[in-house]
Every structure is written in C-alpha cells, then in structure tokens.
C-alpha cells in the first residue's frame, strides 16, 4: 500500500513539473527583443578653428564613448551635428533659384530679363549672407541641428570643412558663431547619446601656414643667393659655369659652316613666345646670329608661329647691329612657313635637302616632329645640336643628333652664351642651391639609417 502511494505521488510530481514547464513556454513571447541601452556619451568634446588653412573649417576632437570597444561595445558610429539658423534655408532656396535662372539663360540666351532677375537674386542672396552672423548669435532660438558628417566607431576627430565660395551649397562663413554636438549611435540609430554642446566657436584664415616654414627658409636662402650672384655678375666678376659639350659645340659648328660655305639652319620649335624654352632659344639665337654676322655665313630661320617670327626677326636684326654689320641682314633670313605641324616639318625637311646646311640647331619646344627633323638632318650630313625641355622628345634627339641639351641645360645654355648678368647670376644660384640640397639629402640619409630622425624632421612640410 505504501509503495502504491509513493508511485502515485511521484507520478503527480512529474505531471506538475511538465505542466509548469509548458506554462512558462507558452507565456514567454518569442518575438520580444531585449531593449538596447543608450551608450555612454563622448567626453572632453571640444571644437576649434582649423590651424594653417584658408578658413571655413572647424576641427572637432573628443574622447571615445565608454561603450566604444569596451563596456556594452554598442557604439557603431558618431554623428556630428551643427546648429544652423532657419535663415540657411532661405539661402538654399535662393541658391536653387539662381541655378534655375542660369539654366534658363543658357537655353534661351543672354536675355535682359534673365540678367536682371539674376542680379536681383544675387543682391537678395548677399543681403541674407550679411544677416548670418547675427542669426547664429540667436542660438538656440530660430534654428535646428543639422547633421554635417559621420565617422565610424573608434574615431576621435572630425574636420567640418566648407567651401569659401559664397554661392556654394556647403559655404561655411568665417567669423561666425558655430555650435556643435557629437552623438554616439548604436546599431539601432534611434538609440544614441548626445555630448554636451560646444560653442560658440569661429573659423578664420591664417596669413601663413606654419607647417611650411622649411619652404620659407629655402625661398629666402635662394633669393639671397640669386641677388648676390646677380650683383656680382653686374660688377664684372667672371662667374664659373660648368661647361656643357653641346654649348661649346655651337662655336665649332658655326666655324665649320663658314669653312664649308654652307648655311646654318636654326629651328625655334613649335612653341609660342610665352614658352620658357622658346624664350631661352631667343637668347641662343642672338648669340648664333652675332657670330654668323661676324663670319658672314648664311643663316636660315623658318618659323612656325607668326609672333615667334616677329620676335626672332628683331633678335637677329639686333645681333647683326651688335656685330657691326647691319647692312648684311636680310629680311627673309627669318621667315614664316605655316602653323600646320607636319606641313611645317615637310617644308623644313625640304630646306634641309635643298640647301644642305652644314649645321642644324634645334632649340625650343618640340613634339612628334622631333625625330623626323633630326633624321632628315642626319641624312643631309649636317652637324646637329638640339635642346628641349620636352621630356618625351629628348630620347629622339639623343639618338639622332650629335649634341643634346637635356631639360634645364637649355636654360643654362642661354645664360652661358648670352652672358647676361641676370641669367648668369640665377644659374649660379641654382647650382649652389642644388649642391646644398644634395649635401642635406646625404646627411639626412646617414642620420635616418642610424635612427636619428631629429634632422629629417626639420624638413617636414605640411600641405
């Protein structure tokens, strides 16, 4: 009997446990989601004018939320907000209206009505801009918080940079009070924690970027060297310039042409009078023309550009005058051919094959025609001297010409042959500056290999 009672009691206990478990299962809501607790806000939040810039930029720094990578580890990103007055909406509306008027003006042409409407809109836009500083001072009234950027978790700073163009959509005015806040946001973007508001803060441009002090020192040093050597050259000092074989070959080539009784062909290239290489070529042409006048050798200068022709004529005429033989100058010594690239090349090649010049001198700006000219000159048996600052054409001149001035050697040639104090002094200053750069680079390399970075840090330049 006792055994039966015990069995019945155990059965009832099992049934009760099963019923309780079933009740708990039924009562539990399977669709319920645990609520996400708000993260801790960022701390030590501050905003300040971005240093060493043109203005229109504010930099924000903060310490990470306690739940960013630690704690609840729930922070997904940080959203940056700036308080803006409702007046900014008026600017947006006016900006859109001006864009619409511009589009209409392009479609319909420059009509007086559209121009008048544009002037009216710009006037109203500028009037609203003048009211912006006072509108920002009204914080926290008549305005709202606008998101200006976002950064991922783990980021401690943000730069709110706007445009300096007043009609730009992201225009950020200087000398205006701004207020910022940073929100730590979880995966559910509705759950966030806002920082304390920081402000007012203003942005403004700086006169000098302190991160570029090494550049300032280099400019001052090079200016001093240039002035020193120019003055020295003006006082009659003989400045030593490293000789270049291509420069020294010019005199020999002119002498050869004189002995052979054949002309000298001088090509100024396809550049304009505004190109530095063409300007340098004028100086060399002056020296060549003066010697040609002294030796009474024929000179041919076919040109590609009418303005270059006009300048070259004056250069050659002055050279003949300096040589004391103005009557020997011929008007057709410098002549215009054509401004069609390969038609000009064909004409010059014809001159080479007909006249068989003893010397061809190519100085200036050259393009695809360089190899055609040089190869034709080689077939004509001419001594060829070339110089250009067009990097892509230098290899063609090197393989087809007897002497080639590479890059800045063309400018050095103009100073070397012209012996102008200004050019010669500048060239000498460049040589000293290059030597100084090489010495500093070697010292920096040695110190870097030994781990002494203090020296190289002196030359770091910020953007």
How would you sum up this structure, described in words?
With 463 residues, the protein is of the alpha/beta class. The protein has three domains: 43-201, Immunoglobulins (Immunoglobulin-like); 210-235 and 425-457; 245-419, Rossmann fold (3-Layer(aba) Sandwich), CATH 3.40.50. The protein has 13 helices and 14 strands. The protein has helices at 2-27, 87-108, 112-136, 213-234, 245-260, 276-295, 306-322, 341-355, 370-379, 394-400, 409-418, 421-449, 454-457, and strands at residues 43-49, 57-63, 75-85, 143-152, 157-161, 178-186, 192-194, 198-201, 264-269, 299-303, 334-336, 359-365, 383-388, 403-406. It has a six-stranded parallel beta sheet, sandwiched between helices. A hairpin with a 5-residue loop joins strand 6 and strand 7. The longest helix is centred in the C-terminal third of the chain and has 29 residues, at 421-449.
Total discrete domains? 3
Radius of gyration: 39 Å
The biggest sheet, with number of strands, parallel, antiparallel or mixed sense and barrel status, is:
6 strands, parallel
CATH topology of the largest domain: Rossmann fold
Estimated share of beta-strand residues: 15-25%
Structural class: alpha/beta
Order of helices and strands: HEEEHHEEEEEHHEHEHEHEHEHEHHH
By DSSP (H or I, 4+ residues per run), the number of helices equals: 13
């Amino acid at each position: 009997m006792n055994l039966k009672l015990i069995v019945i009691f155990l059965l009832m206990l099992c049934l009760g446990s099963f019923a309780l478990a079933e009740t708990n299962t039924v009562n539990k809501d399977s669709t319920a989601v645990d609520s996400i607790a708000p993260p801790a806000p960022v701390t030590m939040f501050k905003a300040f004018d971005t240093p060493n810039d043109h203005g229109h930029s504010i930099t924000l720094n903060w310490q990470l939320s306690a739940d960013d990578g630690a704690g609840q580890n729930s922070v997904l990103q940080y959203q940056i907000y700036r308080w803006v007055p409702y007046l900014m909406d008026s600017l947006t509306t006016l900006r859109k209206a001006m864009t619409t008027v511009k589009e209409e003006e392009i479609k319909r042409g420059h009509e007086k009505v559209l121009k008048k409407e544009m002037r009216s809109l710009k006037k109203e836009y500028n009037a609203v801009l003048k009211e912006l500083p006072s509108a920002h001072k009204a914080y926290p009234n008549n305005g709202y918080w606008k998101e200006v950027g976002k950064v991922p978790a783990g980021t401690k700073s943000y730069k709110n940079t706007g445009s300096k163009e007043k009609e730009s959509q992201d225009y950020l005015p200087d000398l205006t009070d701004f207020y910022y806040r940073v929100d730590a946001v979880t995966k559910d973007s509705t759950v966030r924690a806002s920082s304390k508001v920081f402000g007012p803060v203003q942005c403004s441009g700086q006169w000098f970027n302190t991160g570029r002090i090494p550049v300032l020192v280099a400019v001052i040093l090079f200016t001093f060297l240039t002035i020193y050597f120019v003055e020295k050259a003006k006082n009659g000092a003989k400045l030593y310039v490293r000789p270049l074989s291509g420069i020294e070959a010019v005199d020999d080539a002119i002498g050869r042409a004189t002995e052979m009784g054949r002309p000298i062909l001088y090509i100024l290239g396809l550049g304009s009078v505004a190109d530095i290489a063409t300007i340098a070529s004028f100086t060399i042409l002056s020296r060549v023309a003066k010697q040609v006048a002294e030796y009474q050798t024929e000179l041919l200068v076919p040109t590609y550009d009418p303005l270059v022709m006009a300048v070259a004529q004056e250069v050659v005429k002055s050279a003949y005058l300096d040589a004391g033989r103005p009557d020997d100058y011929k008007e057709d010594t410098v002549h215009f051919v054509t401004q069609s690239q390969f038609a000009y090349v064909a004409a010059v090649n014809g001159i080479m094959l007909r006249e068989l010049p003893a010397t061809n001198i190519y100085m200036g700006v050259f393009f695809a025609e360089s190899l055609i000219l040089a190869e034709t000159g080689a077939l004509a048996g001419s001594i060829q001297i070339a110089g250009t600052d067009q990097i892509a054409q230098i290899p063609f001149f090197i393989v087809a010409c007897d002497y080639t001035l590479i890059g800045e050697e063309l400018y050095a040639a103009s100073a070397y042959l012209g012996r102008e104090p200004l050019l010669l002094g500048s060239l000498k200053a460049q040589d000293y500056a290059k030597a100084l750069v090489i010495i500093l680079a070697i010292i920096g390399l040695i110190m870097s290999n030994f781990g002494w970075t203090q020296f190289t840090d002196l030359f770091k330049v910020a953007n």
